[in-house]
């Protein structure tokens, strides 16, 4: 894995950099930093023992002790056929009940072994947006029809159980862009009244009723079917 590092400020004195990687499976390594023309790259390699969604963390520390950290979710597939991928899109204002005026990056990651019964170990969905950190606990249904992939199930938000979700990916095959569109909807039921409360839905400011492109166009990344 490789990550670009920021260039030092003009006129700054020479300094050294140290990169440390945390792979999300309990393993940690010291990486290599290559510098050129005032910038640089940190690189390292790691073999994961099992399929899954992992959060990889890179921490770069300079010789004065100042450090910066970046994270990225990655999906690791095993033998068989998987629906897998990760990426980000720009979450529109009003999508998150926890931060209604916020517009910013939302990240997603999906991993599902399509050749076996669904289980927590073989089907996972993770999603992060303003005020929301969602982790699936159970996948109730998944479907693949043409250019559409959909997951429905249950999970927790910010560590609290009792939430439901739907994630739908549609590939744009009409305009020739080949881009993915992703819609994420998360909700729960109010205690007592059992009224549905929508916690997140990026369809709110989408191009509905154009159902072929529900949600938001993916800025980077994709969800694809992979076979090994």
What are its keywords?
228 residues; mainly beta; Immunoglobulin-like; 16 strands
3D architecture notes:
The protein is mainly β and 228 residues long. The protein has two domains: 2-76, Immunoglobulin-like (Sandwich); 81-227. Helix content is 0%, strand content 59%. The protein is built from no helices and 16 strands. The strands form two sheets. Strands 7, 8, 9, 10, 11, 12, 13, 14, 15 and 16 form a ten-stranded antiparallel β-sheet that branches. Strand 9 and strand 10 (132-145) form a beta hairpin. The chain is globular and about 60 Å long. The two termini are 21 Å apart. Pfam families: PKD_4. Residues 21-76 form the PKD domain.
Mean of residue pLDDT values: 83
Number of helices: 0
Molecular shape: globular
Distance between the termini: 21 Å
Would you identify the regions where 5 or more consecutive residues have pLDDT less than 50?
A: 116-121, 206-212
Helicity, in percent? under 10%
Care to count the β-strands?
A: 16
| Largest pleated sheet | 10 strands, antiparallel
Alpha-beta content class: mainly beta
Q: How is the quaternary structure best described?
A: single chain
The total tally of domains equals 2
